[in-house]
């Protein structure tokens, strides 16, 4: 069965520090991978996606993610975090059959001055 | 191009009442998805619809829940005889195509059952 794991429930970083949010998936075929961000009381905004090709994907707001097939991972990174990045981050896997997206439980990011 | 619209944004119902949640997809999108987000959890898929058809409802509870996407008008998620456990945020997403095309999410409807 497909599943998505975000092992870090909550992360705190200082403003200006680098960030890496982990995401591991379980799926038999090549997955379609997404990162979404959710601000409090808001819907989900797409940060970036991976379908195929270059395994390093650039997204909005200075985020990037790298697909590593051997590790079944799609970790999200940002070299320098801004206070406005504080939010909930969700990794999702798109399954080619059933049109379902499977979401991780999310990582809550706190940014301290 | 307006994004995915959902209304109401907040809905309060007493146990036993009906809740109707509406979703208007992005212009040009004919695929709609509903997700439920319980507190402190990720989103869980409920149902996938195209115009006038339910394609996949494997994530929808068998009783009290129904969804439709008529030829004209928004998609509706209907919850009959609500219970406290139905309190959650319900998100709608839409996409241009099927399969794993990017899904764009609405702001959600936060349902509170008293």
Account of the 3D structure:
Chain A has 113 residues and is mostly beta strands. Helices cover 0% and strands 52% of the residues of chain A. Chain A starts with a strand and ends with a strand. In chain B, strands 2, 4, 5, 6, 9, 10 and 11 form a seven-stranded mixed sheet that branches. Chain B has a four-stranded antiparallel sheet with strand order 1-3-8-7, with no helix packed on it. In chain B, a hairpin with a 6-residue loop joins strand 7 and strand 8. Chain A binds chain B through residues 4, 32, 34, 36, 41-46, 49, 51, 90, 92, 94-96, 98-106, and chain B through 4, 6, 31, 33, 35, 40-45, 48, 55-56, 58-59, 91, 93, 98-100, 102-108, 110.
- What are the low-pLDDT stretches of chain B, counting only 5+ consecutive residues below 50? none
Largest interface: A-B, 26 and 29 residues
Proportion of beta-strand residues of chain B: over 45%
- Kindly report how far apart the N and C termini of chain A lie: 41 Å
């Amino acid at each position: 069965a497909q599943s998505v794991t975000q092992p870090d429930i909550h992360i705190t970083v200082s403003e200006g520090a680098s960030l890496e949010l982990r995401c591991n998936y379980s799926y038999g075929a090549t997955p379609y991978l997404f990162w979404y961000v959710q601000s409090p009381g808001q819907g989900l905004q797409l940060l970036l996606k991976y379908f195929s090709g270059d395994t390093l994907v650039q997204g909005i707001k200075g985020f990037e993610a790298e697909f590593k097939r051997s590790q079944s991972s799609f970790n999200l990174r940002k070299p320098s975090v801004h206070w406005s990045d504080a939010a909930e981050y969700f990794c999702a896997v798109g399954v080619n059959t059933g049109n379902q997206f499977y979401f991780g439980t999310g990582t809550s990011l706190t940014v301290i001055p | 191009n307006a994004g995915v619209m959902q209304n109401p944004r907040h809905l309060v119902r007493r146990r036993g009442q009906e809740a109707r949640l509406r979703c208007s997809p992005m212009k040009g999108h004919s695929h709609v998805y509903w997700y439920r987000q319980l507190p402190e959890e990720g989103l869980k898929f409920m149902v996938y619809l195209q115009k006038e058809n339910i394609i996949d409802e494997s994530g929808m509870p068998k009783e009290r829940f129904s969804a439709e996407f008529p030829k004209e008008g928004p998609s509706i998620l209907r919850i009959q005889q609500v219970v406290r456990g139905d309190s959650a945020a319900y998100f709608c997403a839409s996409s241009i195509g099927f399969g794993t095309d990017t899904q764009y999410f609405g702001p959600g409807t936060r349902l509170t059952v008293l």
